[in-house]
Amino acid sequence: MTIYNDQVSSYISSLFAIEDEHLLRAREDSPKRGLPTINIKPEEGRFLQLLVRTCGAKKVVEIGTLGGYSGIWIARGLLPGGVLYTVDLDSNHAEVAQEHFEAAGLSEVIQIRIGDAHRELVELTDRSPFDFVFIDAEKTGYPAYFDWALQNVRLGGIIAAHNAFRKGSVALAGKDDDYSELMRQFNKQVAEDERLISTIYPAGDGTLIAVKIA
Ligand SMILES: C[S@@+](CC[C@H](N)C(=O)[O-])C[C@H]1O[C@@H](n2cnc3c(N)ncnc32)[C@H](O)[C@@H]1O
After folding, report:
1. CA-CA distance, 159 to 186, in Å (whole number)?
2. What residues line ligand 1, using a CB cutoff of 6 Å?
3. Model pTM?
4. What tens-digit pLDDT sequence spans the chain (214 residues)?
5. Ligand 1, residues 39, 60, 76, 89: which to mutate, most atoms within 8 A of Cβ?
């Protein structure tokens, strides 16, 4: 019997993913500032934070900043002296996120890079290897972002990619949208890659997680 549902999700969040005023502000203020409500959920944020700390991360890249909600969770998992580079092509999103990072006391820890991630990642390459990469931008970019992450994450480092379920459509017949097949192929490619130990964390819209072992 599978019992994971919205009530169980709320139960986990109420115990393990309690938002302080800064996380709450980043989540609630962003839509009021015209940003889309497409941030990760609290328990997904807590899970990313746990992964970041588990791999002892000091250098992290996030692709898709939005209003900074996931960035705050991730940055709070870094070891002291760590840095999060977060990339977004929308300067309005970046401006809102910067305010949230400053309010949370994280402006020294998080560096926002404004621009298309396909270009920004090339520029970040000379700061590799990274300990952790979180992919949460346009779905058509996932294969290229993942390839870059695999080349630029150290052994034992972790790559996470959001929306692995594509609203459930990867597994549910008749629910396909434009990106369902792309995400199915992406999940399959990662699952079959012998350089990785990988799985999908099934909260929210699913987060694909992969540890680099070779
Ligand atoms: C799903 S949102 C990120 C949500 C954020 N990670 C959170 O949970 O709080 C996706 C973001 O990716 C950005 N984006 C889309 N395509 C991009 C690209 N090619 N390069 C950089 N950012 C991109 C969008 O502007 C948007 O802010």
Report:
1. 13
2. 38-40, 64-66, 69-70, 87-90, 93, 116-117, 136-138, 141
3. 0.98
4. 889 899 999 999 999 999 999 999 999 999 999 999 999 999 999 999 999 999 999 999 999 999 999 999 999 999 999 999 999 999 999 999 999 999 999 999 999 999 999 999 999 999 999 999 999 999 999 999 999 999 999 999 999 999 999 998 999 988 888 899 999 999 999 999 999 999 999 999 999 999 999 9
5. 89
Other beta carbons within 10 angstroms of residue 169's beta carbon come to 18
**What is the C-alpha to C-alpha distance for residues 167 and 151, in angstroms, rounded to an integer?**
29
Contact call for residues 64 and 91 (beta carbons, < 8 A): no
User: What is the residue extent of each domain of the chain?
Assistant: 6-212
The candidate with the shortest Cα–Cα distance to 55, out of 86, 79, 87, 75, is: 79
How many CB atoms are closer than 10 A to CB 99?
16
31/27 Cα distance (integer angstroms): 8
For residue 64, the CA-to-ligand 1 centroid distance in Å is 3
CATH topology of domain 6-212: Rossmann fold (3.40.50)
Instruction: Provide the token pair at 87.
Output: 């990339």
